């Protein structure tokens, strides 16, 4: 038996994120301007000349900016640019924000998630039975180099018009099975409070919509956007949930933590969706530090996504085994509150598929062999079969059978996890 995974736990220092005074590009910027999210958006970095005043670009980065600029422009808010290590190209913030030549290799799929085929109205994607995705804008504060919607973002700036939004509303009113709507983009928090309020109020007026969600990276890339006025407006639309997108502990600056606290203090549950990125967070140590730091800030780690198959993302992708090993390094070694679900968003619109270590080694009629997080083998007795002798048992058995029968599968053979494979364990 191999030794269980015991991740090293040195603390990854979070950046402070304060206004830089040693960068000539922003030397004369006041604190009031720096803390204004609209100033940050207006002064986002788009060119090599601007970026070279912040970091020492490598030839690969300089060429990457040139090669990708026509298809997926670069935009980095000053706040996020100030988090980049000026001399280290392997800085995890820098990798997410600055193009490299490998991004232009053309490898990957166009619309890998099949969203265009599942579009039922302008901006509205209906993939799952009881929920829908509403893309209200194609604009972002930061154009992440690992973006799965890079075919849409960075194009001509566009937010849903009133007429387009009305078409989406018409569909939702006609489909009461949709009880949950995720407002995303682009990033919906690039819009002003008034436009966002219009979208939320119209959605909330549909009786069949029970839950509203917002997907945004603003707490990470532009925490100045989270203002008292914004959260005061958002709290009118409960039950409202927000998911954000921290990928590395370095992004949890004082400003980011303050933005998260404002959201949570307004009674809005805040979750996090991380994308597994080679060279950014593809190690158990980094991911463990990230999820622990998020929980300290009352942010619930929700998903870890395997990086999608979109064009230009091949250099970010890791193996499924890496994803499973990271999941194995979290389960049991930290609170279950901090353990996200690792998923593959299947190509062509197949939806999110969880991938996880296998802790079931084998099953028989009388017992199940299990492996715990430390690698110990435990025999767990199966319950004895018996007839349904009371009305409750009979009713429950019938309901359970009707619900699970279509999905029942043979379970005598279990696919081994990386830990099982390393230990040479076979499953009969």
Commentary on this structure:
The chain is an alpha/beta fold and 428 residues long. It has 15 helices and 13 strands. The chain has 2 domains: 349 residues, TIM Barrel (Alpha-Beta Barrel), CATH 3.20.20.70; 63 residues, no CATH class. The strands form 2 sheets. The protein has a 10-stranded mixed beta sheet with strand order 1-2-3-4-5-6-7-8-9-10. It has a 3-stranded antiparallel beta sheet with strand order 11-12-13, with no helix packed on it. Strand 12 and strand 13 form a beta hairpin.
Q: Could you write a compact summary of the structure shown?
A:
The protein is α/β, with parallel strands linked by helices and 428 residues long. The protein has two domains: 9-357, Alpha-Beta Barrel (TIM Barrel); 360-422, no CATH class.
- Average of pLDDT: 87
Percent of residues in beta strands? Answer: 15-25%
Shape: globular
The neighbouring-strand order within the major sheet is 1-2-3-4-5-6-7-8-9-10
Please name the defining characteristics of this protein:
428 residues, alpha/beta, 2 domains, 10-stranded mixed beta sheet, 13 strands, globular, disordered C terminus
Topology of this structure?
Elements: H1 31-34, H2 37-42, H3 48-51, H4 59-68, H5 78-81, H6 92-97, E1 119-121, E2 124-128, E3 131-135, H7 162-174, E4 180-184, H8 193-204, E5 211-215, H9 218-221, H10 228-234, E6 240-244, H11 254-265, E7 270-276, H12 284-296, E8 300-306, H13 320-330, E9 341-346, E10 351-354, E11 360-363, E12 367-371, E13 377-381, H14 391-404, H15 418-422
Parallel strand pairs: 3-4, 4-5, 5-6, 6-7, 7-8, 8-9
Antiparallel strand pairs: 1-2, 2-3, 9-10, 11-12, 12-13
């Amino acid at each position: 038996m191999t030794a269980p995974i015991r991740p090293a736990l040195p603390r990854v220092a979070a950046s402070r994120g304060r206004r830089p005074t040693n960068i000539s590009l922003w030397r004369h910027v006041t604190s009031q301007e720096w803390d204004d999210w609209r100033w940050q958006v207006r002064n986002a970095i788009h060119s090599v000349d601007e970026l070279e005043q912040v970091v020492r670009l490598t030839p690969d980065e300089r060429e990457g900016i040139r090669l990708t600029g026509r298809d997926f422009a670069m935009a980095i808010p000053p706040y996020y640019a100030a988090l980049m290590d000026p001399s280290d190209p392997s800085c995890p913030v820098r990798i997410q924000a600055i193009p490299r030549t490998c991004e232009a290799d053309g490898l990957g799929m166009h619309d890998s998630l099949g969203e265009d085929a599942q579009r039922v109205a302008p901006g509205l994607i209906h993939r799952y039975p009881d929920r829908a995705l509403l893309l209200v804008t194609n604009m972002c504060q930061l154009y992440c180099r690992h973006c799965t919607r890079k075919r849409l973002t960075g194009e001509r700036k566009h937010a849903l018009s009133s007429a387009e939004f009305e078409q989406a509303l018409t569909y939702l009113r006609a489909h009461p099975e949709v009880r949950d709507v995720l407002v995303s983009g682009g990033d919906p928090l690039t819009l002003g409070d008034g436009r966002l309020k219009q979208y939320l109020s119209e959605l909330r007026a549909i009786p069949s919509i029970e839950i509203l969600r917002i997907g945004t990276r603003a707490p990470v890339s532009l925490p100045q956007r989270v203002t008292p006025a914004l959260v005061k407006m958002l709290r009118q639309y409960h039950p409202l949930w927000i998911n954000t997108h921290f990928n590395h502990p370095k992004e949890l600056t004082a400003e980011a933590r303050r933005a998260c606290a404002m959201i949570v203090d307004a009674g809005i549950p805040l979750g996090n969706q991380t994308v597994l990125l080679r060279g950014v967070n593809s190690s158990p140590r980094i991911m463990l530090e990230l999820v622990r730091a998020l929980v300290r800030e009352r942010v619930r780690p929700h998903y870890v996504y395997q990086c999608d198959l979109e064009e230009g993302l091949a250099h970010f992708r890791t193996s499924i085994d890496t994803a499973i090993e990271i999941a194995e390094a979290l389960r049991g070694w930290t609170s279950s509150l901090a353990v996200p679900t690792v998923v593959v968003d299947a190509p062509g619109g197949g939806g999110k598929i969880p991938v996880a270590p296998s802790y079931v080694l084998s099953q028989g009629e009388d017992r199940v062999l299990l492996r715990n997080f430390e690698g110990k083998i435990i025999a767990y007795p199966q319950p004895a079969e018996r007839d349904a002798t009371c009305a409750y048992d009979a009713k429950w058995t019938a309901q359970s059978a009707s619900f699970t029968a279509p999905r029942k599968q043979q379970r005598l053979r279990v696919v081994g996890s990386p830990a099982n494979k390393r230990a040479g364990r076979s499953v009969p």
